Every structure is written in C-alpha cells, then in structure tokens.
Amino acid sequence: MNGASAIFDAPGPRGRRWVTIFTIISLIAIAFGLMMAGRQFQINGQLAPEKWAPFTVAANQRFFLTAMRNTALAAAGAAALALPLGLVLALGRLSKLRIVRAPVTAVIEFFRAVPLLLIIFVFLFALPKYGLNPNLYWKLVIPIALCDGATIAEVFRAGILSLPRGQTEAGLANGLTDKQTFWNIVFPQAVRVVVPSLVAQVVILLKETTLGYVVSYAEMQYQAQIFYSYHSDLSIIIQTLTVVSLLYVILNISISWVARWLEQRLGTPRAVRQAVAIEIAQ
User: Fold this and answer.
1) Total of domains in the chain
2) Radius of gyration for the alpha carbons in the chain, expressed in angstroms and rounded
3) 250/257 Cα distance (integer angstroms)
4) Assign residue 131 a region: left if phi > 0, alpha if psi is -120 to 50, beta otherwise?
5) How would DSSP label each residue in 64-116?
6) Per-residue model confidence (pLDDT) at position 240
7) CB 280: neighbour CB atoms within 10 A?
8) Among 86, 79, 78, which Cα is nearest to 141's?
9) Exposed end of the chain (fewer CB within 10 Å): N or C?
10) Same domain, 9 and 76
C-alpha cells in the first residue's frame, strides 16, 4: 500500500478514465490560454526584440545575477537559523516537563499564526525605537527564520512521533538512558524521515525572501522594480518579471533536485513521509 492509497481509495477504471479526460481538457485549456496570452503580447508589441534587448547587456545580466545571489544568501542565512531553532523548539515541545513544554508550545503556535510580514514590520519599525536596529539583511532573515523555525519544529516533532514506540522501548531494554536512546536511536531515524520535508520547507523559505522589498533588501523582486523603473521609457515590466520568474524557477529546481537526491539516497518510505505531512498539517 503506497502513501496515497493509505488515505484515499484508489480510483477504478472509470475513475482513471475521467482523470485522464479532465487532464487532457486542462492541458488543452492551458495551452489555449498561453496561445491567447502570446497573441495579446504580440499585438501590444511586448514580444518586440527591442523590449528584450536590455537583458542581453552584460552589465544588466550581472545586475540580475547579483540580485539572485542576494536572494540565495538571504535564503541560506534564514535556513541556517531556522533549522537549529526548529530542532530546539521541537525538543522543547516534546519535553516531559510542563514548565518547558507549555511556553515552547506557545512560541511555536504564535509564530505559526502571525503573518511573516507583521514580524518584518516589527523589526523594521518597532525594534529600532528600542535600540535594536540590525542591518537590512537581518531585518529580513531573522523574521523568516522565526516563522519558518516554528514550522520546522513541527516537522521535526512529526518525524519523531512517526517512529514506532518500539524503537524507544528497545533502546531502554538494552540498558540505554532516555537521552542515549533518543540521540542514538530515535533522532537519527527521525532525521532520515524528515529531510525531504525540510528541503521542501527551504523552497517555501526561498519564496518568502521576496518580502525583502519591504526592507529595501536587494533581492530579485526589489531589484526588478528598480530595473523596470529605470527603463520606464521602454515599458518592460512584463519582460523583467518574466526574467525574474525564470531565475526563481532555476533556484527552486536546484533545491528540488537536492530533495530528490536526498530522498533516493535516504530511501525514506513514502507512507512514512505521508504520515509526517499529515501530522504537520494538524
């Protein structure tokens, strides 16, 4: 039984036939929409060579590559903070001590519920009044790390809880302490289970760096606004956003490749990953 059939009934012959029909209809509709959009772009001159000429200039290409690097750095910095923070929060929420578990749970639920943009505003407008005024990079990275760290905590917790209770009991039966059992038996297996989910969370984290425009951090979306404003005489908003979208696709595909490589290398069972996803959603 695979992960999908564990939750949903597998479609029969008639169901598969209807799925195929709707898939074909959807693909035809998407193709038709793209053709109509391309036709409108051509009618309005958006496909003219001069509209795309600025992107062939070496200086402009370096401009976008620098913005792409800044985006990658912000995502990497946020991930470097969010992953260990998520692990610490997960361990706190799993603690047997209520005095530890209760406040950690409150922190996790708070940062999962509060919009990321609101946390960025706190770092941008509120904290500087009290002498806490980090640079633009950290005004973006720290809020992302806090919000995503809370989500990652639930990923770790779900991975740990997804393991059979017998793993812990076997360790204790062999004379290991609770800590030795957790760090030597439970935790390594939990990491193996949640790595694909963690990589998927990094993809989400990368997209959240687009909020860098709020703090004027030179990530791709913010730099795109500067670029098409500077070339306002050419009116190349569509072209600029298309190029930036392709750069985001490149970054996300790279992360997805890493996720698939880790999934194949670790051999995480699909049913276990599905169980982890359900636990996180709850």
Assistant:
1) 2
2) 24
3) 11
4) left
5) HHHHHHHHHHHHHHHHHHHHHHHHHHHHHHT-S-HHHHHHHHHHHHHHHHS-H
6) 94
7) 19
8) 78
9) C
10) no
Sign of torsion over alpha carbons 88, 92, 94, 95: positive
Angle at 40 between CA 37 and CA 45, to 5 degrees: 125
Q: For 45, left (φ over 0), alpha (ψ -120 to 50), or beta?
A: left
Residues 261 and 198 in one domain: yes
Q: Are residues 195 and 224 in the same domain?
A: yes
**Which amino acid, residue 35?**
M
The token pair at 70 is 């800044």
Q: Are 148 and 208 in contact (CB under 8 A)?
A: yes
Claim to verify: residue 155 and residue 269 sit in the same structural domain: yes
Residue 62 has pLDDT above 80, yes or no: yes
Q: Is the pLDDT of residue 278 over 80?
A: no
The DSSP secondary-structure symbol of 282 reads: -
Residue pointed to by tokens 């578990």? 101
Which CATH number covers residue 265?
1.10.3720.10
Q: In this structure, are 269 and 191 located in the same domain?
A: yes
**Residue 46 pLDDT level (bands cut at 50, 70, 90):** confident
CB–CB of 221/212 below 8 Å?
yes
Q: 131: Cβ–Cβ under 8 A, 6 or more apart, which residues?
A: none
Residue 216: phi, psi to the nearest 5? 65, 30
pLDDT at 270: 52
8 Å CB contact between 216 and 136: yes
41 and 52 in a single domain? The answer is: no
∠ CA(120), CA(116), CA(161), 5° rounding?
135
How far, in Å, are 152, 162, 258, 261 from residue 271 at the CA level? 20, 11, 20, 18
Q: Tell whether 27 and 53 lie within a shared domain.
A: no
What values do phi and psi take at 88, rounded to 5? Answer: -60, -45
| Same domain flag for 109 and 207 | yes
